[in-house]
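Lab notebook, design round three. We kept the backbone fixed and only want residue identities now. Task for the bench partner: fill in a sequence for the structure below.
Input structure tokens:
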């Protein structure tokens, strides 16, 4: 798994120029996504139709989860690359929240897939099944399931770790909560098993929607075809989540041969799977949706007109 806090400090100090370039590139990648995700979340909060329809409620939740993930990840990166060490017991809440947010992503994906399956394959029951109240209950269940693992790890750590270990200075990364290697392996294995289970459900939804698309005609056929493309996007998201889980194992192998190559591979994995993949997918999903895209265009035009009017008045 990832190196310990002390080893991370040594790796960052290998090449100051590399460190500064990596930090700059990280900010260049992260903040545009943070801005766009925040903008979409703001638009979601301003339109009542988005707050009352199940698919948009789940989409808004995915935006919130990704925004939290980007903020927390960037915060941890800034601490690490600026050599800021903080007491381990202050890192624990940050690590727990990051772990919960990470687990929320695939669970939200499966909830969105099931919603599309119900909408296309059970159109007469869709209004009764997919209500805003049930969507909020699903989101609550997602957070409960996502929080189980970090809370269990926290209780085990507090019960078994010494006071010296809990008070040491470190970088914030989840491995500080599971110092035993066997628990590293068990965590990765459990996460992969969960992703495989989610993938099976997504493939089932895709096949059923595909069958519905072949049997449908007219508007129903178009709706089913859009549902197929949506499920395909969710499957891609899930593969990216799986790749993110596998990255630390690949990095551990590379680290045994060459530190410089390890740093390059780790940075590319970080940008490709931890940042870009999580940010791009919801943005693509939002731009593909006609209602949400129209709301974005309207919001941006209104803002531009307001700024232009204020500029004319001041001049």
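Proposed sequence:
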């Amino acid at each position: 798994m990832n190196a310990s806090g002390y080893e991370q400090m040594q790796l960052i100090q290998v090449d100051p120029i590399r460190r500064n370039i990596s930090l700059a590139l990280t900010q260049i990648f992260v903040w545009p996504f943070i801005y766009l995700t925040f903008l979409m979340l703001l638009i979601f909060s301003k339109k009542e139709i988005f707050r009352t329809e199940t698919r948009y409620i789940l989409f808004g939740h995915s935006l919130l989860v990704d925004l939290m993930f980007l903020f927390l990840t960037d915060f941890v990166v800034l601490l690490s690359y600026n050599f800021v060490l903080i007491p381990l017991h202050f890192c624990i809440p940050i690590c727990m929240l990051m772990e919960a947010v990470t687990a929320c992503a695939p669970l939200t994906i499966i909830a969105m897939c099931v919603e599309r399956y119900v909408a296309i394959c059970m159109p007469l029951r869709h209004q009764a099944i997919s209500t805003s109240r049930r969507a909020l209950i699903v989101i609550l269940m997602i957070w409960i399931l996502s929080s189980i693992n970090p809370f269990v790890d926290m209780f085990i750590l507090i019960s078994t770790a010494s006071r010296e270990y809990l008070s040491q200075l470190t970088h914030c990364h989840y491995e500080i909560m599971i110092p035993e290697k066997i628990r590293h392996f068990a965590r990765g294995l459990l996460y992969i098993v969960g992703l495989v289970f989610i993938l099976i459900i997504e493939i089932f939804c895709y096949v059923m929607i595909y069958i519905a698309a072949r049997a449908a005609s007219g508007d129903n056929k178009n709706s089913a075809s859009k549902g197929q493309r949506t499920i395909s996007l969710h499957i891609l998201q899930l593969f990216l989540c799986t790749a993110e889980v596998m990255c630390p194992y690949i990095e551990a192998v590379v680290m045994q041969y060459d530190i410089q190559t390890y740093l390059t591979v780790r940075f590319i994995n970080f940008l490709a799977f931890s940042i870009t993949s999580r940010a791009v997918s919801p943005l693509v999903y939002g731009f593909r949706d006609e209602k949400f895209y129209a709301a974005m265009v309207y919001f941006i035009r209104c803002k531009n007109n307001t700024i232009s009017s204020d500029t004319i008045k001041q001049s």
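Keep this in mind before ordering anything: The chain is about 85% helix and 0% strand.
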